[in-house]
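question for whoever is on the cluster today: can someone run the full assembly for these? two chains, 532 residues total. i dont have access anymore since they changed the login thing
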Amino acid sequence: MTIPPPPAEDTELPPHTVDAFHRGDFWLVQPRNDGHRAGMDALMLAATVPTAFSGRLADFGAGAGAAGLAVASRCKAAGVLLVELTPEMARFANATLAHPGNAHLTRRASVLVADVGLSGKARAEAGLADASLDFVIMNPPFNPPHHRPTPDALKRQAHVMEDGLFESWIRSAAAMVKPRGGFAIIARPEQLVPILTAMDGRFGKAEIVPVHPREDAAAIRIIIRAVRASRAPLVLCPPLVLHEQNDSFSQRAQDISSGRSALFGD
Amino acid sequence: MTIPPPPAEDTELPPHTVDAFHRGDFWLVQPRNDGHRAGMDALMLAATVPTAFSGRLADFGAGAGAAGLAVASRCKAAGVLLVELTPEMARFANATLAHPGNAHLTRRASVLVADVGLSGKARAEAGLADASLDFVIMNPPFNPPHHRPTPDALKRQAHVMEDGLFESWIRSAAAMVKPRGGFAIIARPEQLVPILTAMDGRFGKAEIVPVHPREDAAAIRIIIRAVRASRAPLVLCPPLVLHEQNDSFSQRAQDISSGRSALFGD
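^ ran it for u. tokens below:
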């Protein structure tokens, strides 16, 4: 990137990096070694939101804010709420919003420390009001518990998917999104069944995009977008292939990574 | 086809056609206008079976026998049971087996008129014994009930998917297939959730292949193969694209259609 990243305001912040996204249109302040570092997953998730989207969107499990800021960067009329459970990661999200390089976006963005797995009155009391949103995006923590645990507690929190977390997160998304509002998730292919089960009866018109590292390799991610209270059938879209056979990024992956284009072309 | 199709033995058979498949390796006797005429769906389903498969396979809802015969044609050591509910279609399946052009296959194939939706003792009494098979393939009747009904009763029977039919058919497949045996289904993308729900806890190691008419169009079919009693996670495979941009069949579709290659390359 040619624009030198200005320092973060929170000078007491633990060791961190300040990374440019969308070709320098926004900057992410994130832990240098700890926690879940943001990358292509967040950008692909953000790319599910139509460019003309002008409502209020929440990023569940926002981390340092990559996906939410990527939405704010491309969708010029979107309001974005970054919802993060851990105060440690929310501190990075706040540092991201305080970063001078994001000044053009931050009047449309805010951070909320809350557990999106709550339900009923407790959820509302945590600041997560019913029917208060037009779109929810989520990149839930996603290694199953039997994966090799890492020594780092923050990373574990981001990567270990508790049983039923999809159900509770998607239940909250359904409660908070208005009828005809949007929902999108990025996850691993093996999580297709618990995700579709949790969406059943809540979100319809699902559009699934498999993400393959190469044309001839199995999918490493699935991206699903759906509509609250729709009864339209599921659609399996053409896959997103990230790399050409020569290992370079595909044009479509570059366009999504840079914020030039939306995943569904809308 | 260069080999002229010999006539069917059942001279009282209703109006029918005799069509060559796998470049003339087998022939299908099927109703001229009535019922569900076999085509690419049956051939793609048959292509899920490994070429070296040498056990006993049942084709649930076999119709005139296209998918089962396609397995027998490519898998030289497979034994094939064609299970068909309607006596009308089973008559065509028997005519298919009686056809002289299939003489090299018919010692490994038989027809059973039975309802694969039965359970427990009734299923066993219908000739569908528990743990008697190494593989089940199915192409269930698949237009949802709200689709425009057709005047033709046979066609309706083949196309209208009753609620719960996936559950009962897949339950029967799980009962009849031995541990580590195979299962494969071809269906429509919107049926992904009821199918995966019915497979849950019965078949694992699912491999899903989306079938797209063209590279840039939504999938029109899904093909799923799985293993009885496996707990391995689901895999989303690269799609099968049927046509090139110039409308010609893709090489892979031609290879599957002709019986030259298996879908999963095994």
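summary bc i know u wont read the tokens: Chain B has eight helices and eleven strands. Residues 144-149 of chain B have pLDDT under 50 and may be disordered.
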